[in-house]
Amino acid sequence: MLFGNWGYGAARQFDVTGTGAVELTKRHHTFSLTKQGAATGNLRVNLSWRMRTSDFMDDRSTSLGAGLRHPFRKFTPEVVAAQGPAVVNVDLDLACMYELQDGTKGVVQPLGNILGSINSPPYIQLSGDDRFGSGAGEDIYINMDHREEFKRLLIFVYIYDGTPAFDRTHATVTLYPGNGPQLEIALHERAPEARSCAVVMIENRGGDIVVRREMKYVYGFQSELDRLYGWGLQWGRGYKSKV
Question: I need a surface site. Which of 72, 133, 167, 200 has the fewest CB within 10 A?
């Protein structure tokens, strides 16, 4: 089999979506890339999102049934007839705070055009900035061939501009390892006033690379996440260039 014992036995240990991806949830919130043979090559972290109207609420029974009947439907934006306020104006950004084994700390993010590097420290690189919720989204690439140099990596999402409305966007962070199943974390908790969300932590636990779901919302920006996780970076105001 392609993923060794990945299949029925693994499905009992993790929550699996209709597409075969592993969904990190409150119940099953950790996943070892090392134990699944997926800690090599480039790990792609994708943020996909789209804006939705205030009347577009989660109908769990409808969405679940449709997902089982049409597993690829989740990738097709739904047409929503707005009855109240129009589409929410939100610009979500994907970013990564990193700490290396030698003590080096920093951030890779669109703000300030801090894009990183995939072939030299920090071995993390941001590709693109999706300001409008397109289908492609934003990607961060992590060079797992240098995994021994990582101590911890915090993948987070923040609202750069527009309404602080995580609860009115449909956002998912997906990890695509070089080998093995993809990992999904849906940002569906209700946090109407939050501007930032720590989504997932990737830690080197004595050589075991473990992904842990965080899903911690804060009402400030990067500096508040920094304080929450004790990173110790210095932050200042920053702006994006005009489109």
Answer: 72
